[in-house]
């Protein structure tokens, strides 16, 4: 699914990534770790096509419509409700049986009771749960998660643990995290950035 060799990214004179190699087959789980500023987010942006490498080779075997990306920002519309957000993204991705899928995800991520409230009234953790619903909505082949546990309470983190366990082996996952122990049992490969 992913093959990267000698990947490098610069912004002007600033080198963000140097010599990154990664091979991840379909159904694999890569855990990306590193300190703040090590290039984790940049690597994930390269993987989903939001940035281009300065040097090296990168092949991603999933069409952009088959990618699910959770960024640092939740990428949901705060003036819309949860249902309105997911319906919009469901139409954009042409999700079959969209309403059923949306309902299932809202239930699973404990947002059903607040589905008709504007996202601007949500806590940061609730917004993160909605962003996860958006990411998983179209059942992507490649799921790229940048610090997905950010702002989640223990119940939300446990819920995400279960979701990732269910997806491991069925979907290809790339998870950037400061807490690698949380997903270590799922990992088929690990990448530590310096």
Can you walk through the features of this model?
The protein has helices spanning 40-47, 82-92, 98-108, 124-136, 154-167, and strands spanning 2-11, 14-24, 29-34, 55-60, 67-70, 142-146, 172-176, 189-193. The protein is an alpha/beta fold and 194 residues long. It folds into 2 domains: 1-62 and 142-152 and 164-194, P-loop containing nucleotide triphosphate hydrolases (Rossmann fold); 73-140, no CATH class. The strands form 2 sheets. It has a 5-stranded parallel sheet, sandwiched between helices. A 3-stranded antiparallel sheet has the order 2-1-4, with helices on one face. Helix 2 packs across helix 3. The chain starts with a strand and ends with a strand.
**Class by SSE composition:** alpha/beta
CATH homologous superfamily identity of the largest domain: P-loop containing nucleotide triphosphate hydrolases
Number of helices: 5
Q: CATH topology of the largest domain, anyone?
A: Rossmann fold
Helicity range: 25-40%
Task: Give the overall form.
Answer: globular
The overall strand count is 8
Number of folding domains?
A: 2
Low-confidence stretches: none
Order of strands in the sheet with most strands: 5-6-7-3-8
H/E element string?
A: EEEHEEHHHEHEE
- How does CATH name the architecture of the largest domain? 3-Layer(aba) Sandwich
Could you tell me the mean pLDDT?
A: 96
Characterize the largest beta sheet: strand count, sense, and whether it forms a barrel: 5 strands, parallel
Please report which band the strand proportion falls in: under 5%, 5-15%, 15-25%, 25-35%, 35-45% or over 45%. 25-35%
Q: Give the C-level CATH assignment of the largest domain.
A: Alpha Beta
Q: Please give the radius of gyration in angstroms.
A: 17 Å
| Gap between N and C termini | 24 Å
């Amino acid at each position: 699914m992913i093959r990267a060799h000698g990947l490098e990214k610069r912004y002007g004179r600033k080198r963000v990534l140097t010599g990154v190699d990664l091979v991840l087959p379909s159904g694999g789980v890569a855990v990306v770790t590193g300190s703040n500023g090590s290039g984790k987010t940049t690597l994930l942006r390269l993987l989903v096509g939001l940035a281009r490498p300065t040097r090296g080779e990168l092949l991603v075997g999933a069409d952009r419509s088959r990618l699910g990306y959770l960024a640092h920002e939740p990428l949901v519309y705060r003036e819309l409700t949860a249902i309105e957000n997911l319906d919009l993204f469901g139409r954009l991705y042409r999700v079959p049986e969209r309403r059923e899928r949306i309902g299932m995800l809202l239930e699973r991520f404990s947002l059903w009771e607040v589905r008709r409230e504007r996202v601007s009234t949500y806590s940061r953790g609730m917004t993160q749960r909605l962003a996860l619903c958006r990411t998983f909505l179209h059942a992507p082949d490649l799921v790229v998660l940048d610090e997905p546990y950010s702002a989640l309470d223990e119940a939300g983190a446990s819920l995400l643990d279960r979701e990732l366990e269910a997806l491991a082996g069925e979907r290809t996952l790339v998870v950037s995290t400061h807490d690698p122990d949380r997903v270590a049992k799922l990992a088929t490969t690990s990448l530590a950035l310096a």
